[in-house]
Amino acid sequence: MDNILRVYTRGIEPDKYPDGLALSVHMQILSGEKKMPLNNDYGILFPKADIDDKNVIMPKYVGNISIAKALSGDYYITGNDFLQEGIINPENTGNLWGWKTKDFISYEEIGFVEDKLISRESGLSIEELRTSDSVIISDSMAKALIDYWSVLQVTEKKDDTIFYSDGSKYKLNTSNHSGLGYPLARGFGDPVIMLWKDDYYFISTNDNENDIGLYVRKAHELEDLFKDDAKMYLILDKDEERGLIQTFWAPEFHIINGNLYIYFAVSNEQWGPQCHLMRLKDGGDILNPGDWMDPVKVKRADGCNLAENGITLDMTYVRSGQRHYYVWSYRENIGTELDSGSMLMVAEFSPDRPERLISEPVCISRPFYGFENVCGTINNEGPYAFYHNNKIYLTYSGGDARGYLYTIGMLTANDGDDLGDIRKWEKSKTPVVHFLSVPGEYGDGHNSFFMDRNHDWWIAYHAVGAIGERKISTGIRRVHFDALNRPRFDIPLSDNLSNDVLNKMDSCPIYVI
Question: What is the rounded CA–CA span in Å between residue 340 and residue 373?
Fold first, then answer.
């Protein structure tokens, strides 16, 4: 029986699946009567936006998708330039959007070029390129694509080990954090959890207090951070004399050369958040406000502000080899016709003087894809990194920060690379988490990572409980490394739990070609 891979776009549903998502390349595998949408029927390839002469991002859309296989073995996916309304752009009928792939996992962007150029490169006529929306693929390729683009299923639990449908496995630990999942803390966004001196600490943006003040929770067990009676300690309050007045946003704990810092954004009386840091005094208690040094603004190497005419926020620390970097979000002209959209900047600093950069900021990502700039929410924000097998995984968020359209994207680099060299970063063309990734959770985003006592990596994030909801809540999940050693952020926490696993195995059959 043949396996057929089909490419298509979805219909625009403004309140459920808007244009920036619908007018992208979707894929499904057909095998007899069986149908498997890849990536949970969410877009996989998105046309790249333009930037006009005023530095404003102009979103792009694609439709009339076709696919063809060249003699080289490469597959070419092409489509017409579409307008936001879901119709062909009459000004660009001689050009095509194009992508090339060998395996439907990694893709080369051809971009928006003359159809004759794609024909010449592929060795296929324009008619051959544009005739069909499907190709035949092998059993092994179909299985690989389902493993890669679908949520992994539990196939077996044997003793203390869980086996997954792609051949990967996970060994259960003595503490499986059964009291965790989603939702955990309602009204708390941008969550960060840290294990420090054998206790867990939780810090976040506190929407319940109108984003004013920094609050911390402490518990010996991870689950206890989120009990109804968990105590919150106010460690930094509004202070007009020091210019700490509003938007206490996205606080993060980071340990640099043995010193503990909190990085956060804050505004004075005039709205305009800027990145700050404060250090815990030697021997200090995290929960004692008096044990923290005064917050200071992070500045450029010449002593100027990071942004004289924009906002800066969501600063995070990334180490590469022996070098130290900040990554943060920057935006100009917010709320105007000249809004640049938020973008990710990187610069190096010395841990001896962490409030001052030693290199010029470089932009490593802008919201060019439909999942990042959908419905006017043009965001690259909330960066956070973790390390595995000499790789740096830097996640970030795009889209609507307080709604179901929030997504998590990812950039990767090698540990030891010069992170100020944009060529060292590889950006995923598809979000690694979106609102169709995990049932019952919508708009997972602005995440962080932490390692527990068992040396498992976890992702903490905020989301909403339904399409249309605007009240965010904190959740966490274990990071799973699949058979390709790729981090997966969509594994339900119930997979860790022996009873739930046994119950789940009957309710989640594996799709078999």
Answer: 11
Radius of gyration of the chain (CA): 23
C-alpha pair distances (Å), 392 with each of 321, 416, 419, 488: 10, 9, 10, 14
Residue type, 422: I
214: which 2 tokens?
Answer: 């920094």
Pair 362, 347: CB distance under 8 Å: yes
Percentage above 90 pLDDT, the chain: 90
| CA–CA dist 66, 98 (Å, integer) | 10
Q: Which two three-digit tokens encode residue 175? A: 């503490």
Model confidence, pTM: 0.95
Beta strands in 257-369 (DSSP E): 259-267, 274-279, 296-297, 310-320, 323-332, 343-349, 362-365
Cβ atoms of 81 and 61 within 8 Å: the answer is yes
Which of 79-88, 216-225, 231-240, 491-500 is least confident?
Answer: 491-500
CA–CA distance from 4 to each of 31, 138, 139, 151, 512 (Å)? Answer: 6, 9, 10, 20, 14
Q: What is the distance between the alpha carbons of residues 405 and 383, in angstroms, rounded to a whole number? A: 17
What are the counts of helices (DSSP H) followed by strands (DSSP E) for the chain?
5, 35
- The alpha carbon of 363 is separated from its chain's Cα centroid by a whole number of angstroms, namely 17
pLDDT tens digits along 440-491: 999 999 999 999 999 999 999 999 999 999 999 999 999 999 999 999 999 8
What residues have CB less than 8 Å from 286, skipping those under 6 apart? 196, 201, 216, 218, 235, 260, 280
Q: What is the C-alpha separation between 289 and 195, in angstroms, rounded?
A: 19
**Residues 37-86 pLDDT 10s:** 999 999 999 999 999 999 999 999 999 999 999 999 999 999 999 999 99
pLDDT band for position 498 (cuts 50, 70, 90): very low
DSSP assignment string, 345-406: EEEEE-TTSTTBBSS--EEEE---STTTSGGG----EEEEEEEETTEEEEEEEES-TTSTT-
Burial of 58 (0-12, 13-18, 19+ CB in 10 A): exposed
Sign of CA dihedral 18, 23, 26, 31: positive
Q: What is the pLDDT of residue 174?
A: 63
